[in-house]
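[audit] Reproducing an earlier prediction to check determinism. Same input, same settings, fresh worker. If the tokens differ from the archived copy the diff job will pick it up downstream; this log only records the rerun itself.
[audit] input (313 residues):
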Amino acid sequence: MVELGTDSTRKVACIFPGQGSQAVGMGYSLYESSRQAKEVFKEADEALQFHISQLCFEGPEEVLRDTINAQPAILTTSIACLRAASEFGAPLKPVVVAGHSLGEYTALVAADVISFTDAVILVRERGRLMHEAGKAKPGGMAAIIGLDEVTLEEVCRETGSQIANFNCSGQIVISGTRESLARSMDLAKARGARRVIPLQVSGAFHSVLMQPTVEGMTQAISQVDFKHPSVPVIANSTAQPLTSADEVKDELIRQLSNCVQRQPSVEYMLGAGVSTFIEIGPGQVLTGLIRKISNEVQVFNMSDPDSINAINM
């Protein structure tokens, strides 16, 4: 049993994963053991008018991996986990929330900014628009390991690629057209990168190639009721807290084609006194990155009944 403590000065951040954390079978144990989690999956099925729950539980994997499906599936599983935690007697009271890329929408639900139904419909549309942008201007992403930021920025300037994610020291993700990405990977290796890893994504996310998504997402966002966050939400694009509905809406548009500031976001939360990070949802990508950024904080993952029950709030 992990003891998080009851000290009122302890500051907890809840963080939510993005695309790439999906896996067939995710959420099924929550669905089977939690009434509230089952309600979340039912609500998602009704909102999307197809069985996203079945896709989460049974796949097939290649369909679940599609951007248009992976985004609402991950959000749904993450919110099911969050609500199951409350049902299981582990209610979370974060002082701040944050999410990686689509995980920012999950964070908005956790911070009472938008309803879950609105969020799952928005990310489904976000996934569709990103997929269409990727088809119109084919591109991709690659993780560059062991190359400093300044050198990689020079590589991107020479090739036309763009830094898409500052994950942690020594791990930066770039986006670009297929041609520019190939040149960038070759140059990065030539200039000392330890590893260059092409990512299995359908487009150059968080780059200017996603600019065609802006009009459609602006229209979709305009139809949703946004409230002021109940706790600050750390923005992907600026690593600064969002505290008003208008700031949130601006951020959701800005993050589409701008870099995700993951390490600066974590550093902001550390500077604000956060001592415990809980990643809520499938996978453990974010907890792994936080451990690389700081070895002085507690980091936990909640993804199923066992991991929820292992944490004593």
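[audit] rerun output stored. Observation attached for the diff report: The chain has a mean pLDDT of 94.
[audit] end
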